[in-house]
Amino acid sequence: MPTDTTALNAADHDKERAGIQSVEVGFALLDVLAQAPGALMLRDLAAAAQMSAAKAHRYLVSFQRLGLVVQDSTSTRYELGPATLRLGLATLSRLDAVKLARERLPALIEATGHTTALAVWGNRGPTLVHWQETPLAAPVSLRLGDVMPLLSSATGRCFAAFNHHGGGADKAAPMIEEELAQARKLGRKDLPSTPAQLQAMNDETRQQGLGRVVNVLLPGISGWCAPVFDADGHLVLGVVSLGSSATLDTEWDGPIAQRLRQFAQQLSADLGWRGH
Q1: Beta carbons of 90 and 72 less than 8 angstroms apart
Q2: Which residue, among 115, 113, 186, 112, has the nearest Cα to 149 in the 3D structure?
Q3: Stated pTM of the model
Q4: Are the CB atoms for 139 and 125 separated by under 8 Å?
């Protein structure tokens, strides 16, 4: 009697789909534990994952065998296990902030309609490592490899405010002092020239979560820069948006600022940052 191969293949396909679905359901428990500030009781873990306690327990038994979850024998609470730590560290070691950002930039550029760049801390300060113009971009005399000033550029202000530990924090101090002295010498009213003014600028940048300049570095050009952090809270990347002051929205709560914040926060989260 001939075998109905179509029916068998369909059955195998259904089993495969069921298996994948099962993994997705179980992962919800791991995701809840990853987002939680500490260990959780079974009932709370199950409720957060939107499943019954009995169903959650079955998954947790298997996860314990794999080292993905551990249970405290005294409190009976569940926490992520050593296997998840190994997976997390392996993933973080392979992440490249610039690569991830470049892959996501097209969507950001489409949403904002303005030229976008990426900057990292180099030997001489914040350095542009990626540059992508839009068709209607205002001409800007900035290019790859340019080092941005710390007080007169959105990129520099972002790094000056958020690069206060690790990276180039020690190197930034003398650069900032030199730029403050230059601002005093030139009598620039649009730049901080005293430690108090510098502190006020940094406070505003941190409070708003963005570096911003309006007609400061280049006449008729405004810019934004959003900070991206790694798992240790170090500033690893600045996401820049700039354009003509006539068309670039420079309001702190405007659409460009909000898009940049969301982009940088999501990228930071994907790099392991859990700050706020």
Answers
A1: no
A2: 186
A3: 0.68
A4: no
Q: Give pLDDT tens digits along the chain (276 positions).
A: 444 555 445 545 554 454 567 888 889 999 999 888 789 999 999 999 999 999 999 999 999 999 999 999 999 999 999 888 787 666 655 558 889 999 999 999 999 989 899 998 886 789 898 888 887 666 777 777 888 999 999 999 999 999 864 455 567 888 899 999 999 999 998 899 899 999 999 999 999 999 999 999 888 899 999 999 998 888 999 999 998 899 999 999 999 999 999 999 999 999 889 875
Phi, psi of 226 (to 5 degrees): -105, 135
Helix axes 97-112, 255-270, angle to 10 degrees: 160
Q: How far is C-alpha 15 from the geometric centre of its chain's CA atoms?
A: 38
Q: In angstroms, what CA-CA distances link 222 with 55, 156, 213?
A: 55, 13, 6
* Alpha carbon distance 42, 139 (integer Å): 59
Task: Give DSSP secondary structure letters for 216-260.
Answer: SSSTTEEEEEEEEE-TTS-EEEEEEEEEETTTS---TTSHHHHHH
Query: Could you tell me which residues come within 8 angstroms of residue 17 by beta carbon, excluding any fewer than 6 positions away?
Result: none
3-state secondary structure of 88: helix
Helices (H), the chain: 5-35, 42-48, 53-66, 82-94, 97-112, 154-162, 169-186, 195-208, 255-270
